[in-house]
Amino acid sequence: MAGRRQLKRYREKRDFRRSPEPSGGGREPSGQPIFVIQKHAARTLHYDFRLEVGGVLKSWAVPKGPSTDPRQRRLAVPTEDHPIEYAEFEGVIPDGEYGAGTVLVWDAGTYRNLRAEKEGDGASMEQAIEQGMVEIWLDGKKLRGGYALVRTGGGDDRRWLLVKMKDEWADARRRPTSTEPESVLTGRTLEQIAREEVAGSSEDP
Ligand code: MN
Questions:
Q1: How far is the CA of 75 from the centre of ligand 1 (A)?
Q2: β-strand 133-140 against 144-151: which pairing, if any?
Q3: Residue 46 alpha carbon to ligand 1 centre in Å
Q4: What is the total count of domains within the chain?
Q5: What residue spans carry the region label Disordered (predicted)?
Q6: Which of 8, 29, 50, 181 has its CA 20 to 30 A from that of 109?
């Protein structure tokens, strides 16, 4: 279960009386670890790439979103750990709150740590992140196959790159962020979520 300390930054940034986001009571891991990619129309549109590691969702903001083309390197900036429950969060974070804007669950599924399976490596996800060299196999609805998340600079350079690995799921012609914009949870678009959530909240006293 996620410790209080791990989600401290997440909780400090948010007012859960105003934001519909989960505060994160902690949830026991169940079997294969999950990943989720949330499309987030905040001040600037980006995709939040999250991996279940040690009871929380390790998170990176990917401005252009993931690609299925191994030649495309996508900038990924680490953000604070999120609670596991966040993987099912879809809705509108109100104006004035941290991350204000609409959130859509763009892809979700489970993943495998490829380094843990490698002879002579065996790195855990915690070690892989610490080393800035993550290799995972995604089993999502839109994304499948190997992806590498690699930290580029040292010291204060906190930038990472998200790159599709070369395998049978690599496809330079697919543009899933453009052609498959809907939520894998509800089939809704960002606009539909925004409209429905606003309509819902206006009925509140
Ligand atoms: Mn975000």
A1: 14
A2: antiparallel
A3: 6
A4: 1
A5: 1-33
A6: 8
